[in-house]
Protein: Aspartyl/glutamyl-tRNA amidotransferase subunit A
Organism: Arthrobacter nitrophenolicus
Amino acid sequence: PTYGSVSRYGAIAMASSLDQIGPVSRTVLDSALLHQVIGGHDARDSTSLPDPLADLVAAAKTGNVEGLRIGIIKELHGEGYQAGVENRFNDSLELLREAGAEIVEVSCPNFQYALGAYYLIMPSEASSNLAKFDGVRYGLRVLPEDGPMTIERVMGATRAAGFGDEVKRRIILGTYALSAGYYDAYYGSAQKVRTLVQRDFDAAFTVADVLISPTAPTTAFRLGEKLDDPLAMYLNDVATIPANLAGVPGLSLPGGLADEDGLPVGIQLLAPAREDARLYRVGAVLESLLEAKWGGPLLAQAPDLAGTAALETQEAK
């Protein structure tokens, strides 16, 4: 959803300028129904928008995209994207074109810097937000097994037990980026890139009503496969990070299965801030067209990944 359109009251903050609650469901209409219920102004959240929500459910039931301009983001497909992902993306474009949408190309040149900016802003804010989990004043408390019971040792034991490896990695990175002598070079520069990304969106939405791209450049990698290479994991966010930086709404839905590995491909739709209804309108139509093409719900086409993993584990034993 648009940043501030759904209350974050009750959520544990990671990065306050980025965090946004949103629905996860099996269909676009279900997402619209849930969003309609949880959205709207909340005085308990200082970032909550005062605007009343549009009728998102009605938008999801519109049933047509005729005359809408749908923009292909030049920088978010093509080179570096898996062939099967590109094929399913092109299938979606063709279906929307046949349904009466006008397909245009837009360029967002500063999106190439968005990933780096995000992974400076997000860890910096996470480092600040998670500092309150010290085992003394707030949250979990883990006592050292032996030795003196000092505040420092309680804090160390609590944070060692309570935070996972990825959280610790982000705290360390964020603390470094915010440290004296590095603030302007890292965090300050990243915020400037954020402004450039927002300007790219503003320009793109003058020629397109909705933007479209693959959700990720590849299909899913195996669980735990890239734990030793965080940068490889972060690169999979390259298409979704710009919307998060700019605070615009995004919707991801299944776009079919890649030819090479039979794994699901995601299609991402983006709209201007406060125009979430456009996403539900286009998303519901695309979902319907894809289901007609694939002969049923796309999630039903996905391989039984959990069962496969369990079988492989048994065979390994």
Residues 227 and 233 are 8 Å apart (CA to CA). Residues 313-317 have pLDDT under 50 and may be disordered.
